[in-house]
UniProtKB/TrEMBL annotation, chains A, B:
Belongs to the PPC synthetase family. GO terms for molecular function: catalytic activity. SUPFAM superfamilies: CoaB-like. Residues 94-189, 211-329 form the DNA/pantothenate metabolism flavoprotein C-terminal domain. Signal peptide: none annotated. This is DNA/pantothenate metabolism flavoprotein C-terminal domain-containing protein. GO terms for biological process: coenzyme A biosynthetic process.
């Protein structure tokens, strides 16, 4: 790590071309964070061993000291432990970053260096965070995969639709269910104000957005989570030393020297949002160095979790690396998303992070844990177990 | 230019990772080209000075020597000269390339160099080529803009839809017309077999596809057109000298040396499809060198037309550079596409290319030129003028 990461970061931001729409973004962010600070949350863990519907209906109407428990019913068709918090205490807003950043090679940019990243991870995770009741700030690369749109046939959106006899829009039966579910889930997230989408393209835009979001979320304290799935460039050309025009191609081979991007994870943890729960990702193509690099990142940047994944099978399996050890997370089948289980387990980690593991609840055999912050203090109490 | 472009090209292809799905693509291509060889075509020029509907209905039913004239009625609401050809002689298939190619920096690719290109030009041009009656082979970058989808709000496809009370899919009134037109035009192109879409990502995939399409279209002779709007990398890392794994970021700044990509336009013109009508594009950010470079490309690669455009205003204005001089093409308003007029003018150039300009038809004041290849020879005859 550099001797002075703060100084390097400051120099990076000074020289970066300023973000367009900065004021509008700042306004949206402030409103979003204010709406979701101190919000109620329900957590679902894949551990419940008894039938759920009755618990669910009990829970839905459970009032305790005037606070209505919030239950995300969609999760209750599979075994889980349910734990709900009332006002405050548990994280309510997660910032998900997604897709790859670009590094322009010319100021009037024609060529740039890019990172492989479809945005699949971030888009899928956003869906599962929303399903679990979080509000999500989705910082995404323009053109990358979007929540609820992952099922779309690549580049052939129009293949999903046809015109009926009365010129009404129809979806072939083969796709009707999936399209309707997507529209309905997406509209719900937007209409309930649970999803804020902020696009970027370059490394300059990405890091400025991340700084804005992190400083805006700092007021949430431990209610804020960062889930940094974006593939961020390691090397860049400082704006001032960049070619103004398109590099000429007629004059033989091209030599380029790239500088290292300052390690902003460090700044995020130390300065921008020191209380937040931070999850970062480590992608490698060489499995021999992957876990070792993930553990180094955990220590170096003070992350709570580093999710290690290999390019060859990133959709199938990831390893969650924490200070307590490694947990391998695989998807049960090709029809499932590994992100579903990953976010369940992150919620467990989060719970641990807040020292709710006194009762070792994840070892069972509890069926239900119901937590609530009755007095509004920072630490919710355990109210009921059965 | 290199002393031996053919040798360089051969070396490039030998070392490139082989195209996946090569056999499937070859089969689709052969079928598409066979279906459209010797096809009838109608051309529309923006020169007609009298009312159109009557001519249109006359034309639609015009039979001459057993060949039904094909008329694209959608074009006939605005002034135009109509010229139709019967079997053979005029180009019927255009290969449109679109979007930017990537250059991998690692064999198991995480990082790559990319070119700025939304694919807007290629997608819009494909729509106007289809409207003018051409069959289109659309070689496009994965994730780039698609024909008839250009109107979509970026990254928020689902914003276009909502669910009605009976859970039917609805489009808000504000977007209904544009979505329905898009679905209807797209379905028509697909159902009539007029559009073949072939995706690429890397420079290796792109050039292999272009070679396959060009050699498949060579049998069309002068009926084939190339409209090369893709932003093709000038520099690349030869596959064999590429890092196998992700480049380490911990070891200071990165030095890269890139080689020049062989100039395939030259090979396309000389070897792959020597009879085709070739249109290439030149994009620069510096207007001072743009036209001079476009003219150099025209001579060097034997193009029929080079379309010069600047990054700053590529949607508003282009300059068509031919051996006869320069023609500036601008869009009448922000609601129009510059591609519409560009493709009208290309059809005029094409006509000249085939030496149909004996009558200087584009100077008017003719209202209608109707051409047909009665005997099936290569050169259609002028049958009727009024």
């Amino acid at each position: 790590m550099a001797a002075d990461p703060s100084g390097e970061a400051a120099a990076f931001f000074r020289a970066a071309p300023p973000l367009r729409d900065r004021d509008r973004v700042a306004g949206e962010l402030a409103g979003f964070v204010a709406r979701h600070s101190g919000k109620s949350l329900a957590f679902f863990f894949p551990l419940l061993r008894s039938p759920v519907p009755q618990l669910c209906s009990d829970l839905r109407s459970a009032k305790r000291d005037g606070i209505l428990m919030r239950v995300v019913a969609a999760s209750l068709t599979r075994p889980c432990v349910v734990a709900g918090s009332g006002g405050g205490g548990l994280p309510g807003v997660v910032c998900v970053t997604s897709g790859g950043t670009t590094v322009p090679l010319e100021q009037r940019c024609v060529r740039y260096i890019d990172n492989f990243s479809s945005g699949q991870r971030g888009a899928a995770s956003t869906e599962y965070f929303l399903k679990a009741g979080y509000a999500v700030i989705f910082i995404y690369r323009r053109g990358s995969k979007q929540p609820y749109c992952r099922f779309l046939p690549e580049d052939s959106f129009l293949d999903l639709f046809e015109l009926g006899e009365e010129s009404d829009i129809q979806v072939p039966d083969s796709h009707a269910a999936v399209v309707k579910t997507a529209i309905s889930n997406y509209r719900k997230a937007i209409d309930e104000g649970l999803l804020l989408k902020l696009p970027f393209t370059t490394i300059f835009e990405y890091l400025q957005l991340l700084q804005m979001v992190a400083t805006a979320m700092n007021c949430l304290g431990r209610q804020g989570m960062f889930y940094l799935a974006a593939a961020v460039s390691d090397f860049y050309v400082p704006w001032e030393s960049m070619a103004k025009h398109k590099i000429e191609s007629a004059s033989g081979p091209l030599n380029m020297q790239l500088s290292q991007v300052p390690k902003m994870l460090f700044i995020l943890r130390k300065q921008w949002a020191p209380s937040a729960f931070c999850v970062s990702f480590k992608l490698e193509t060489d499995p021999d160095i992957l876990l070792q690099k993930a553990e180094a990142a955990l220590r170096k940047y003070g992350m709570n979790v580093v999710v290690a994944n290999e390019l060859a099978n990133y959709k199938d399996v990831v390893v969650m690396v924490t200070s307590n050890g490694r947990t391998t997370v695989g998807r049960p089948s090709k029809e499932d998303d590994v992100e579903e289980q990953l976010i369940d387990l992150l919620s467990v980690s989060l719970w641990r992070f807040y020292d709710y593991n006194k009762r070792e609840f994840e070892k069972g055999p509890w069926e239900l844990i119901l937590c609530n912050s009755v007095s509004g203090e920072d630490s919710p109490e355990l109210l009921e177990t059965r």
